[in-house]
Structure formats: C-alpha cells, structure tokens
Amino acid sequence: MDKFVPRTLKDSLLTFEAGVNAGIAPELLKRNQLANAINTTVRGDFIGPRPYFRQMYLDFNGDVALQALVTTSLFQAAAYYQPDNGPESILAALAGNLIQFTIGTDRARVISASVTGGQYQIATSPQQWMWQSEKWMVWNDGKSNPVFFDGALTARSNYNVAVPFTTTTATNAVTILASPNQMTVNVASALNLVVGDILTLGGFGLFTVVDISAPPAIKMIKGDSQKIGVTIPVGTTISWSHPGTQLPPGRMGTYGMGRTWMALTDGRQFIASDGDGGSSGTVGNNYRDAVLNITENTYLAGGGNFAIPGGYGSIKAMCFAATLDASLGQGPLQVFTPSNVFSCQSPPDRLIWQNITNPILTESLKGGGGLAQDSTIPFNGDTIMRDKTGIRSLILGRRDFASWGNSPISNEVDPILSPDNQNLNILAYGSAIIFDNRMLMTTGGVPFAKGVYWKGIVPLNADSVSTLRGKQPSVYDAVVWEGLNILKLVVGQFSGVERAFAFTWNTDKSVMELFEILPSVRTELGATPAVITDSGGRRITMRMEFAVLDFGQKDPKDREYGFLANGEIYVDQLQGKVDFRVWYQPDNWPCWVPWNQWTECASTDSPISKPQFRPRMGLGEPSILACDNVTNRPLREGYTFQIAIEITGHCTFKGGAFWKTTMPQPPPAPVCQPLCQP
Fold this sequence. Notes:
Elements: E1 8-13, E2 34-38, E3 40-41, E4 48-49, E5 53-55, E6 57-59, H1 64-72, E7 75-81, E8 89-94, E9 97-103, E10 107-112, H2 114-117, E11 129-133, E12 136-140, E13 147-149, E14 154-156, E15 162-168, E16 174-175, E17 182-186, E18 198-201, E19 206-213, E20 217-222, E21 231-232, E22 237-243, E23 250-256, E24 259-264, E25 269-272, E26 306-307, E27 317-322, E28 330-336, E29 340-344, E30 361-366, E31 376-379, E32 382-387, E33 390-393, H3 394-399, H4 414-417, H5 424-427, E34 432-435, E35 438-448, E36 451-461, E37 466-467, E38 470-471, E39 475-476, E40 486-494, E41 497-506, E42 511-517, E43 541-546, E44 562-586, E45 593-602, E46 612-618, E47 627-628, E48 633-634, E49 637-638, E50 641-662
Parallel strand pairs: 6-10
Antiparallel strand pairs: 1-50, 2-43, 3-4, 5-42, 7-8, 8-9, 9-10, 11-12, 12-13, 13-14, 15-22, 16-21, 17-20, 18-19, 18-22, 19-20, 23-24, 24-25, 25-26, 27-28, 28-29, 29-30, 31-32, 32-33, 34-35, 35-36, 36-39, 37-38, 40-41, 41-42, 43-50, 44-45, 44-46, 44-49, 44-50, 47-48
C-alpha cells in the first residue's frame, strides 16, 4: 500500500450577491448564497449590517395626559397623510382617538386630531383602518360611520343621519288655495332637494315635493293643515331634511380611479363612492368631496353593492394594480380574500356600469390571496401580499397559474415565516412598506393587551447588482431583521424626502415608541455612514451561516477526509468596537462548534477618523478537544464544513479563506449489536 501523503486543500467565501436562501440544505447552495442571515444586507455584493433604527423624540408640548394616552393605549391603525398644504404627517388611531405625528428631523410633534372636531371611534375595537382619499383621511372602525380628517378638522359621515337643508322663495308670492291641490314656488336654490321631500314653509304648514324644474322651481302638494287664502311671501324660509349620503360604516378601503372604494362591515360587499368632481361635492371643496358620497349607487343592471361570491372568506385587502399607458397609471381594483383575488373591471364613467353585460367582477388569482390591508402593497409594477403560505406575487401567481409553479416567492425565508401561518387571524395585523428599494414585511406576530407587535422584518432587496448589461433578480437581504417590536410600518414623503417609520412597543418600559428606519449607506463605494449603532448606542449583531465548504471536491465520492486546519476572514469599514465569534459544523453534525472569538477596535473619536480594514484576521487551528462522544471523533474532522460568523458592531464582511488537511480515510464502521430491542 502506498504511503499516505497529506494534502492541504483551500476553499473560499467571496461575494454574496445571491442573498439568503434558508429554504434548502446548505450543501446545495452556491457559494455566493447564505444559508441563514440575521440583521444583514447584501446590497453591493458583500455583507454589511442592516440599516440602523433611530428613535424619534415625541414632543407632547407638556401635555402629560396626551402622553399617557399615546404611549400606553390600544394601537389600532396608522397611515401616512399628505395635506393639500402644510407639512406631511402620520395619523394613528389609539384607543379610538385620532393622533397626529408631525415629523421633524429627529422628533415628532404629537397632537390630538380628535379633539378639534370631537370625533372618535370605538376605543376597544382591536383593529381599525385608515387611508387617504383626495385630501381626506378616511378612518373606519368596522361598525361606526367613518370619520374624515382634512388636515385641520374631523367630521363624522352623515350616512343615514337626517341632514337639514334650507332655501328661500325667490321672486313670487303664492296664495294657498283650496283648489287646485298643487302649487309652484320659485326658490333660490334646489340643491340637495329631491322629489318626495317634505318641506316646511315658515309657519305655513307642510308640503310634499312632486316636481323640480329649472329655473329652480318646485311643485308641491299641500297637506291638510294649511290656512286657505293665506299668502306665502317672497323670502319665506323653506326647510327640509333627508338621510345623509356619505360613506356608510365599513372596514378597509383604498382610493383609485377618482373614487373611494371600501369594504362594508359584512366583509363580503364593497362599494365605490361618487367620482372626484361629481355633483354631490361642494363648491368650497371644488367638488372633490364627492369622493366621500355614494349618491351614484347604481351599477350593472340596477343598483346595489359589489359582492364577492360566497365560500371565499371575507375581504382582507383592496388595492389598485399598477399599469402603464393609462392616464392614472392604475389598472383594475384588486380585492383580496384569504384564498382568491378578484379584479373589479369598472370603467371610470359610472353611467357605463348599468350597460355592461360581461362580469364586472372576475377572479384574477386562485389558490392564494392577501390577509391584511397593510401587508398588501404595490411593488415595482407588481402587487406583493402576505398570504397563508408565505409572501406571494400577483404577477407571478397569474403567470404560473396553469402550472405547478404557482407558489409563494418566499421559500428562501420560509423558516421565519412558517410559524406565522399557524394563526391567520394574527396575520391580519401585519404591515409592509416599500422603502429604499426594498420590500419590508413584518413577521413573528405576538398578540398582547395593546394590539399585536411583530418581532422582525423580512427584507426583499430589489437593488441587487444592476448594470446596462442586465440585472440580477431581487434577493432577500436576510432571513429577518431584528431589534424592534413593530406595531405598524409607515412610509411617506416628508419635505421631499422618502422616510420610513415604525410604531413599536417597548416591552421593558411598556410604552409605545416611534422609530425611523434609516436608508442603507453604500459602504462598498467608500461612503462612511453617519450612524453606526441603533439609538441608545446599541450595536447591531449580524449572524451569517454560509454554504457548505467542499474544498473543490463537488462529487461526494471524490471527497477526502481531513481536519479543519485554519481559516481567515476579511472585513473593511470597521468602526468603533467590533466583536467577532466564529463557529464551524462538520458534515451533518447538528450543532455549531465554537472556533474562535476576539475584538477589534477602530477609533471614532475624531471627526476625521476613517473606517479601518482588516484584510486577514486568522482563526487558527480548531481545538482537537471538541469531540463527538458517541463516535469518539474529534469534531474538527470531516469531509465538509459549514462556517457561521457573528459580528457585533459596524463593519462589512468581505469574505474568507479556509484550509483542510487531508487524513487517511477512516475504516468502514463496524457492525454493532443494538443496545435496545424494537
């Protein structure tokens, strides 16, 4: 037999532009993919810390009662609000109160928007909904009439409430005669008057409207209590009332195609408001407030509400699909249930609806649907939704409908999402935003007395390597970003800058807080981040688990046995104190074996301090004492090895190299006598 000559084999970790894929076995991954990652981003090919979280100071202007209300109440909803004039803000529903957060650089001024108009919603309902239609924020609690906020005042919908109106006689005095039974009166205005209304003319009795003509003139039938022969003079006040026509009680909704669309309280029906600029609006608002009314309540062949078919569950979300070559950039309304998505093919002109013969409501996706209004969002021409199996794409679901490929797009992060699927009711409280060219979606829901908070964010990065020659697919930056207990994610334009915020719950202090999610800094291009810790000086801990190292021996039958001999890793952009911990895992060993740990420091005391680099940080030879007590084998020995690294502090991980020294092949395992009988 030839004498065995040991060899040293080398394997490397280089770039990670393919992101994270925790959905398959690590030995099947390409070297530019991560098997697992927490609090990381791969934007720019290498691995850096996730964006930092900055706490916003909440300025209550000394109002202790308001501070207690805002920070300790039931959290029900939140949304970005953009007024016609003035600063943008965030509105939140807290225990039935409408609270406004006006965003500054590092603080938010907090006031009660409910007090202005005295309008509130149910304090104990666990979930409420908010969205903006024209200049009004529409606020629903699922039972009461909606509340409208226009940037200054709140007002409750007058739906089914008697609304008083008045006008006056204009040019003619009319004498009440015994016969004929009808009389005509010219009026200053017939606005809001309809046939059948009961009129009160000063102290002259009650009359019923039977006709309205132009110029404003009304034909009335007199009752039995009028005094015959009495003359009604010019200028007499005429008053009447009829039920209000504004939006009824409802749930979630959206604004699109110039109309407000809203699900009703039964969860199956939904309605469309009058069109922007319609006659039901008022002159003072340039008729834009028509979007708060439902006087045009007819569609198809005779009126009523839209309704999804039975058996599909209740409506969970509504949004408009993006489309090109359209005046508003919007396609049909998409209505989401837990198992299906419906498309409402409604022409902008509502008069056309009654003449449509084909179905106005069709299925646009089967087998998957959205579970929450705030986690169903447009994303780069697509619509992304959280459903009962993960994260889904409307476009990809439609494309793959006729194949077995109609599946979620979140297999890479399924280990973090799948526990949420055990309680779909919790997922109704989830939220997602598009910020910094990423989709950020909440995960890890925890119900508690003040609502539902989420322990992490799943980040889908759409800014992977892109050039004029082509673009890489979107990738997941990490399995999860941790560090906040998120009640709701909100994004918007503030003074011309896109900013993202998270309402959070501090479990240590039992108070609600507001954090800003800062954008990424492209450190691989030499940029130096202004912030290298979360608020309070909390350093981020990144954990990375890499693809299995086979040392160039792809085919299992060619792999040589050996021991892990050494390794080194490379980092740059190192600032402040940074702690490193490294583990390894031989073959299919179920646990991580500690390898080495140390601390590096780079001064940040001086304004001119530059980030440092560490081109070669050696790991040394793993200890031979770590042993599998079942097989009596040193754990540093094996055929393949997987590496895990944990970094606490700010730096960019640039890769590493690892060496294995071959050893004689162990003899075949002996046949063993079972220790127990079946």
